[in-house]
Prior knowledge:
The complex is a heterodimer of chains A (about 600) and B (about 100).
Chain A: E1 2-9, E2 13-21, E3 27-36, H1 47-61, E4 68-73, E5 79-87, E6 89-94, E7 97-101, E8 110-118, E9 130-135, H2 141-153, E10 157-163, H3 168-173, E11 181-182, E12 196-201, H4 214-221, H5 225-238, E13 243-247, E14 253-258, E15 263-268, E16 272-276, H6 281-291, E17 294-299, H7 304-320, E18 329-342, E19 351-364, H8 370-381, E20 385-387, H9 391-399, E21 409-414, E22 418-424, E23 429-435, H10 438-448, H11 454-462, E24 465-468, E25 473-476, E26 481-483, E27 496-500, E28 503-506, H12 513-539, E29 550-554, H13 563-571, E30 577-580, H14 592-610
Parallel strand pairs in A: 1-4, 4-20, 8-9, 9-10, 10-11, 21-29, 29-30
Antiparallel strand pairs in A: 1-2, 2-3, 5-19, 6-14, 7-13, 8-12, 12-13, 15-16, 15-17, 18-19, 21-22, 22-23, 24-25, 24-27, 25-26, 27-28
Helix pairs in contact in A: 4-5, 9-14, 10-11, 10-12, 12-13
Chain B: E1 6-10, H1 17-27, E2 32-36, H2 42-52, E3 57-61, E4 64-69, E5 79-82, H3 86-98
Parallel strand pairs in B: 1-2, 1-3
Antiparallel strand pairs in B: 3-4, 4-5
Helix pairs in contact in B: 1-3
Amino acid sequence: MALVAGVDIGNSTTEACVAEIGPGGRVEYLAGALTPTSGVKGTADNVPGVVDVVRRALSSAGRRVSDLSAVLVNEATPVISGLAMETITETIVTESTMIGHNPDTPGGAGLGVGETVAFGSLRDCAPGTKVICAVGAGVDFEDAAAGINAAVARGVEVAGAIVHADDATLIANRLDVPIPVVDEVTLVEKVPLGMPAAVEVAEPGRTVRTLSNSYGIATVFDLDAEQTRMIAPVARALVGNRSAVVVRTPSGDVTDRRIPAGSLTLIGEQARRTIGIDAGAAEIMAALRRVRPLSDATGEPGTHVGGMLARVRDTMSELTGTAVGSVRIQDVLAVDTFVPQAVTGALAGEFALENAVALAAMVRTSRGPMRLLAEELRAALGVEVLIGGVEADMAVLGALTTPGTGRPVAILDLGGGSTDAAVAGDGVVRSVHLAGAGDLVTKLIDSELGLDNRELAEDIKKYPLAKAESFFHVRMEDGTARFFDEPLPAEAFARVVVLGDAGMRPVPTRHNLEKIRQVRRSAKHKVFVVNALRALEQVAPGGNLRQIGFVVVLGGSALDFEIPDLIAEAVAGMGIVCGTGNVRGTEGPRNAVATGLVASHALAVSLETAG
Amino acid sequence: MRGPAVVVRCRDASSPWLREIRAGMEEEGVPVLVEEVSEGDAVALAFAAARLSSLDVGVGVADSVCVHHAKRPSGSPVLTGPLGRARVLGHNAARLVVGIPLK
Lengths: 611, 103
């Protein structure tokens, strides 16, 4: 009987599996353990993590380090991924402006059109003129209402008002003639005066109809076709708002331009293609398919893409001690996304969702530093250390211990930085490592929701959403209610919250639950479903997914509450059995490589004794 | 019989801060009912007011302003703040009724 420990050093966790190998290669698995990886995968910095995880697995099996006959370590080739995002459109407003506003409490309702005039100058307006009144900071609501009423009594047609403070309803309630009033416009003093303007407020529960429609704005300001084309981005930016203001100057010029976002050169073994980032993700991925297999990729210097690829290369060369020039980008994944950007030239700090492309790139290197790692580990534990087989082969062997699986089996290992796949057909294992995984999903959620908070984006990715409906209960995203004994904090009241392991976390945005859920699911789809299909297509016999009987989903992201389902749904049409792995029937989607190392070692031992 | 309203209990019905609290609630479209009582601090006034309110929300005005909910423990109000924040606290008392996030 020999006691061995299989150890898998991953990008984020290090896992161990302790087993007894009997005569004839019979394996008895005793215990498993998991710990965060110390240092970057595949370097000597991993040693403390490995020592810790081996000790923990041994202690839960009731054994000591001195009982061990060997430690089997995976061939941990470090995979480094980098992410970059480039905006490819920009809305510019010149000599004209818009104020898109969506506070909870505009006043009045309807559409008012007139010339902008400051509240202080209202008394100078001649009877019969149509005006939009701009009420700046410091004007009390009773005074504002009295001033507007006095002007209307003199015959001035006040068609609408723009207010600095949060008191639109208070003013509207005190007017003799109802008009739409937009409030919480912090930069009201920047509204150009003496210009044609339109104010629109929708009834509660509705959104603006005229100013969010290009032809509506054209009708209001009597624009020709060319001018309407220019104003179209303004209309688009106002869609979904309950209130809006558009101020127009005679030589108005609003443009929506495409930004040259740099280009990416994909170098394949046979062909090479250069493609502009602004062509979008679909074009970039199509170009990648045409040059596959990729041997390297470069970005135009001075752009985000160029910078990111250079950064990935530098980090890798530093880690492995190889020259920067010999580090190769092995895969890229491009994804279309949106980024909230300040509208250039707008007066009130408006934001518009601009198109962007996110790019994940991946580098893989040689097994150089592994020998050093093995030596240090041998010294630390005082046990023989063997570097096991190729990671993908081991993962397949481990995955096959999942009850109910059979050959041909494919594994999908969904990690933080990369998505790996392997297929075991007739004795040969084919594998791929692809760029794009959990980290990219987090980044997409962060930017599309405009959170600017990676930690919160990570929580939104991992946990279900709920809405705090009272101080004592929340409504989960699936409609079920959950109650609490302690009253919920005031900042969570009526907000969308993430229900994490550590408790409840309010999401401080205006987005409703459905919108956040949709962004979360679409980010997972764009990365994991796309990558799953891309990966399986590359490893399936003859590129035919129908040749794969079983798909076992492994890795940290396989523990996600919806990613495995999204993938299963995507491959269901191809007659594939797909599900989350349950290694050795006990470990879930974890420990596959560690288990595979033990299984493979046992096989080698039995062959030796037989021979 | 009273209609639906947030109840405000104060020590001095002529306090200028009451106008601000009323304004905050009017902006949110929630009815309000003011009562003058002789003693109690803001938290105690607010809790008693919340118990009286058919909407379960009460505001207490003394040296400070307190917003309370009838279903919460008496010593654990939703919010308290200085008199200078009376308008915002009025908004928030109304928002508890309307069910939108506090400001």
